Amino acid sequence: MELSVFNIKGEDTGRKVALSDSIFAVEPNDHVLYLAVKQHLANKRQGTHKAKERSEITGSTKKLGRQKGGGGARHGDIKSPIMVGGGRIFGPKPRDYSFKLNKKVKSLARKSALTYKMRDNAIVVVEDFQFEKARTRDFLALMQNLQLPEKKVVFVLSETNKNVYLSARNLPKVHVVMFSELDTYKILDAKTLVLMEASVAGIEQTFNA
After folding, report:
1. Is 23 helix (H, G, I), strand (E, B) or coil?
2. Fold adopted by 2-46+98-207
């Protein structure tokens, strides 16, 4: 499977880059995609929610009325859950929502996501480039040349590029990541995946490991 390589002006360079079928043309597994996205979102949760139970409420422990004969529900003190301002029954407590996935499951999820992007023609390969200075307008011009305005885009770099990263930092719909940081959620969340030409080899080496 081959894709044309474009330059920063959006012109076809005439070169093509081969993409491995073992990564970009696998049989997608929707369930592992669900598990990978679920893990990503669960790991982002702080889990700091907390509600006070009756033992944690400040108030008198004096019994408010007699046990029977009052004509209503029985209750003890003012901290009872059936009273306004009382404690909460089985309220949320701080917890860790993160969970683990097998390495092969995560690998299959990434490959499935890349396969879907390939089927949707949502992968663009750009030859390696550098910015002399960090300018947002230069990055916007690049987006315009590649016909990617107003879309969620993930740029995948082959190596750390400070000026490219800083140029895209103020664009809310653009994310610049290293090929080693590419995960299932980032791939699925993007409308278009822009791969630097040199990052293709890194992706294949990492995802086939």
Report:
1. helix
2. Ribosomal Protein L4; Chain: A; (3.40.1370)
Tell whether the model's pLDDT for residue 35 goes beyond 90: yes
What's the pLDDT at 43? 95
Please tell me the distance from the alpha carbon of residue 50 to that of residue 207, in angstroms, as a whole number: 40
**CB proximity list for 4: less than 8 A, separation 6 or greater:** 12, 13, 15, 16, 125
Minimal CA–CA distance to 150: which of 169, 131, 174? 174
Q: What pTM did the predictor assign?
A: 0.82
| Residue among 119, 138, 86, 117 at smallest CA distance from 191 | 117
- Structural domain boundaries of the chain? 2-46+98-207, 51-91
Whether the Cβ atoms of residue 7 and residue 77 lie closer than 8 Å to each other: no
- DSSP-based three-state secondary structure for 17: strand
Among 204, 194, 139, 133, which Cα is nearest to 6's? Answer: 194
Residue 108, number of CB atoms within 10 A of its CB: 22
Q: Of 13, 2, 17, whose CA–CA distance to 158 is shortest?
A: 17
